[in-house]
């Protein structure tokens, strides 16, 4: 049976570097994908992902088992992305919303060839629709759909009341439904391309 993230983190705190390696293998791709969709830039996402795991190492002694490890990790990653966006905005005086995020290459769980073909056609439309969401809605949507965090955990990650998180998710889903319907995408063909990363 796989050890929980929290148990692995406790082992890492006790000096077992192999436990940290397991955590990195388990979370690197989903964290990178989350950061890629937030930043829209593969290079920045890679740098931020590495920085997030460095912060885990540096903060390991202070981590307590009160919250899930994933919640703590995504809070670190999200804060790094927010800080980076502020720096970029300050330096360039450009809008924080960059070009549409490009899909991360995430191995698939093996859908049927027909389903894979449909997903390949829908993926760019879905990615563009997600990238077009307001930043706060996109962030909540990605944290919920890509990482599987509960609303209470998203509230902790973003420092936002849980009801506000739920409201942002509702608005994001409604906006996505409208945008995709306008593009002729049906719910059957619109499974999120990142669902295999969970």
Gist?
The chain is mainly alpha-helical. The chain has helices at 5-13, 17-39, 42-59, 69-92, 113-131, 135-145, 151-158, 162-182.
Describe this structure as you would to a colleague.
The protein starts with a helix and ends in a 16-residue tail after the last helix. By secondary structure, it is mostly helical. It contains eight helices and no strands.
Find the structural class using helix and strand composition: mainly alpha
- Number of discrete helical segments: 8
Number of separate strands = 0
The coarse overall form would be elongated
Q: Roughly what is the average pLDDT, rounded to an integer?
A: 79
Q: Roughly how many Å is the radius of gyration? A: 17 Å
Kindly state the percentage of residues in helix: 55-70%
Low-confidence stretches: 92-111, 194-198
- Per DSSP, what share of the residues sits in E-state strands of 2 or more residues? under 5%
Distance between the termini: 18 Å
The succession of helices and strands, N to C, reads HHHHHHHH
Features:
198 residues; mainly alpha
Please specify the SSE layout and strand pairing.
Elements: H1 5-13, H2 17-39, H3 42-59, H4 69-92, H5 113-131, H6 135-145, H7 151-158, H8 162-182
